[in-house]
Amino acid sequence: MSIIEHVVLFKVKGDTEQEKVNAMLNNLNGLVSLDPVLHLTAGPVHRIKSPILNFTHMLHSRYKSKEDLNTYSAHPEHQRVVKENVIPICDDIMAVDWVADNDPTPLSLPPGSAFKVTFLKLKESVSNEVQGGILGEIKGVKEGISGIQQM
Prior knowledge:
Elements: E1 3-12, H1 18-30, E2 39-44, E3 57-63, H2 66-74, H3 76-86, E4 90-100, H4 128-144
Antiparallel strand pairs: 1-3, 1-4, 2-3
Helix pairs in contact: 1-3
């Protein structure tokens, strides 16, 4: 079964009142009640290993299809939360979506679960053939190490 994974990273402005950060997280987490959402959770980032990226919070959600993700994105409640609670307090936002093919993991994670996400950005000058080879190697690493699961 294919699942659409949706991750959004947020960099909250340094001078933002904690009350506003809590409101953002509460409202983002409330979007789990929207029909197309299979799983959604938002919270502070524990650690980020990047000298140039310093995001403070993250949202992870799952959908059955690209259409469901589009429906979620266009939903008035999602639009309201972004406009009222996210944009006013964030300096930077980055969203990443991908198709997780043949994913055996449960649709939603148990409460209190931790997961590690690694994003790779290939140079734009790399050919499609080389990109395919790199992605193939990454999949091979995953298959060779037990305990690594696609979320």
